[in-house]
Design brief:
Elements lengths: L2 H11 L3 E5 L5 H13 L3 E3 L9 H13 L2 E6 L7 H11 L4 E6 L14 H16 L5 E5 L5 H15 L14 H42 L2 E6 L8 E7 H8 L7 E2 H12 L15 H13 L3 E3 L5 E2 L3 E2 L3 E4 L1 H16 L2
Parallel strand pairs: 1-2, 1-3, 3-4, 4-5
Antiparallel strand pairs: 6-7, 8-12, 9-12, 10-11
Helix pairs in contact: 1-7, 2-6, 3-4, 7-8, 7-11, 9-10
């Protein structure tokens, strides 16, 4: 069976317990979340028949929260004696991923569904601030209309199933064996791959923005390039060259490793102001200039020194070997795309 199909079959068989925490005035909204959970093939957990003022019932509620796979927190404008905060704190202590649906303060809401006592209003405002600032909340979603909640819930849960996979449970067939262990191993591997793809996808805008900032940095900085000719006696010419031009030239060269000496010869050949005059072979561009340029590129995360200039007693100091980094490839790609897109 293809791996993608195995993942789909396994996820279809997986069942999650999903606890829904909400105050009493949100019955309609809670029902819509329960329906989404059922439609996704999982089991909603609600303490609607339990009395939170009873210690025994409270213990049952806490046990159900601790054993749940995900915790949905639906927050509006009712403090409800802090019951939701108590349930939320139990989920955090138990390591259950929390997905918080917090009403937008600009949302239109019935006065009858809002607290009137100043103490309750302040307590709820403080709780919302905690949710907004707390990095332990797996996902925070703001909503204005009750009709928007089902789709927001569906998207948040689907994302959580892939990015924060939980143990859940699968109905036993009584025939578990090596095949199941092999399948689970492949599914774990597939899950890690999906996490990496999702991380790359969600961070793409940030990478593109950073790439453009790096290109601007390269444009505003430059190096002075001198040349030593074969029949010359000293360094000649002081060519001012932007870092962007240098990076544009050497990036294709360092897709595979190139030494500082090789880069010096390459830059000298393409930038030589006197094409008719042959250059000396060993560092026709000053070695300290090359090392400074590559060190700056390394600080910008554009390239890596893949041998760290390790000394070899038999052959003297080994030259640095430079290789384009993953981010360097992204910057070069953005630069090429930007220039190809220009009319």
């Amino acid at each position: 069976m293809p791996r993608g199909m195995e993942v789909q079959v396994f996820l279809a068989a997986m069942k999650y317990h999903i606890y829904i925490s909400a105050s009493g005035e949100l019955r309609g909204e809670v029902s819509s979340l329960e329906q989404v959970v059922w439609e996704l093939g999982h089991i909603p957990v609600r303490p609607s028949v339990l009395n939170t003022e009873n210690d025994t019932d409270n213990q049952i509620i806490h046990k159900n929260i601790s054993e749940s796979d995900y915790f949905l927190l639906l927050v509006a404008h009712k403090w409800n004696n802090g019951r939701q905060k108590d349930e939320y704190e139990r989920a955090i202590r138990s390591g259950v991923p929390v997905i918080a649906f917090i009403i937008d303060e600009k949302a239109r809401w019935k006065a009858a569904k809002c607290d009137t006592e100043r103490e309750d209003i302040d307590e709820m405002a403080s709780f919302k601030e905690i949710l907004a600032a707390n990095g332990t909340v797996a996902s925070k979603i703001y909503w204005q209309k009750s009709a928007d909640l089902p789709e927001k819930c569906r998207e948040a849960l689907t994302r959580a199933f892939f990015t924060n996979t939980r143990q859940g449970w699968v109905k036993s067939t009584g025939q578990e064996g090596p095949e199941l262990a092999s399948l689970v191993g492949r599914l774990v591997s597939a899950n890690e791959e999906l996490k990496q793809r999702l991380h790359a996808y969600t961070n793409q805008p940030k990478i593109e923005e950073l790439s453009m900032k790096t290109i601007n940095t390269l444009e505003t900085n430059s190096a002075q390039i001198s040349f030593f000719y074969l029949e010359g006696e000293n360094w000649e010419h002081n060519l001012q060259c932007s870092y962007l031009k240098i990076f544009k030239l050497i990036a294709p060269e360092i897709f595979t490793g190139k030494s500082s000496g090789e880069l010096a010869r390459f830059l000298a050949a393409v930038l030589n102001p006197e094409l008719g005059r042959p250059l000396r072979r060993e560092f026709p561009v000053p070695s300290n200039t090359i090392k400074k340029i590559m060190a700056d590129f390394n600080l910008l995360n554009l390239c890596n020194c893949i041998n760290h200039g390790i000394d070899s007693p038999a052959e003297g100091a080994a030259e640095e070997l430079w290789e384009l980094s993953a981010f360097g490839r992204e910057v070069f790609s953005q630069y090429r795309f930007k220039n190809l897109a220009l009319p």
